[in-house]
Amino acid sequence: MKKVTPNEIDKICTLISNYIYDNEKIVIGVSGGIDSDVVARLCVRAVGSERVHLFFVKQEGTPEKRLLTVNNLAEELHCSLSIFSLENMNTDLIEELHNGDKVNFNPDSFMDYHRAKCSLRVAIFSAYQDNDFIFCSTTNRTEYMTGACMPYGDMLGNIRPIIHLYKTQVNELAKLLGTSESVLNQAPSADFWEGEDDMDDLSYMLLNKRQVPGYRRFSLEEMDSAQSIKRQLSGTKIDLALEGFNSQLSIDEISEISGLNIEICHRLNSLIEGAKLTRHRKQMVELESLN
Q: Span of the secretion signal (predicted)?
């Protein structure tokens, strides 16, 4: 896998600065995680701190340490920061959706409640865009290829500064940009619930061979299988395997270079192919105007 160099910083900053007009500002939803930290640092380098606004959303299950982390980031980068408290609004949203559509929304759905947190954050992005802000996606290539992202959620953005970089490469970029050790060393997580981490999420996706729908329930035996899969995973192994798939290597070759067993490689391939049909599907298809 290609190593990230300081030249990558210049390329991304040029992408950002060339996109926005002189009178525009950028808004970034920061989580206290490495992806949004990196995107914030890149945007500040590209256009200056006075043109970058950060916001953080407090929701049920959000660790308190995240708030401290984003406050430190805003202070370090000299950016303005807004804090929004939307605790339990995801529950209210799903219940109201169920009241209007009992077929497609279920209050007993575990994942629907948590994904609704992302939907609420998107509403904030929309409100900022209505006030002429440009917003940046924080999705990386690992999330994009595996489908661990939401097309009308964290993937949304006028600019996707790091979607071409695997998570391993984002970590390398973070070190070059000066991301704090505390952020670099924490386990990646969407913070949908306390104790969640990305490898835990990915293990259930691999077990399911696709994104886990809201109505899916796992038996105790399946939970044990997911934990068995998780013990074999690491961020580096996943990214090496994804790079292998991107290079059109065989499953045997991918298993060898990544250290993942053949079965997990097959399951990962199912995730990738499923993401092509859902997460990567072209948006806003349209016909040409009538002549």
A: none
- 99, containing H or E segment: helix 89-100
Of 210, 191, 206, 276, whose CA–CA distance to 237 is shortest? 206
Query: Domain locations in the chain?
Result: 6-185, 198-277
Stated pTM of the model: 0.92
User: What's the start-to-end Cα distance of the chain, in Å?
Assistant: 49
Based on DSSP, count helices (H) and strands (E) in the chain, helices before strands. 13, 4
**Residue-by-residue DSSP string for 215-271:** T----HHHHHHHHHHHTT--HHHHHHHHHHHHTT--HHHHHHHH---HHHHHHHHHH
Provide the 10 A C-beta neighbour count for residue 282: 5
User: What is the dotted CATH code of the domain comprising 6-185?
Assistant: 3.40.50.620
pLDDT at 4 over 70: yes
> What tens digit of pLDDT does each residue of 211-242 get?
887 778 889 999 999 999 999 999 999 999 99
Please name which of 254, 276, 140, 152 lies closest in space to residue 210, comparing C-alpha atoms.
Answer: 276
Share the mean pLDDT of the chain.
Answer: 92
pLDDT of amino acid 47: 97
Confidence band, pLDDT 50/70/90 cuts, at residue 104: confident
pLDDT band at 55 (very low <50, low <70, confident <90, very high): very high
Reduced to 3 states (helix: H, G, I; strand: E, B; else coil), residue 81 is strand
Query: Encoding tokens for residue 260?
Result: 């993942």
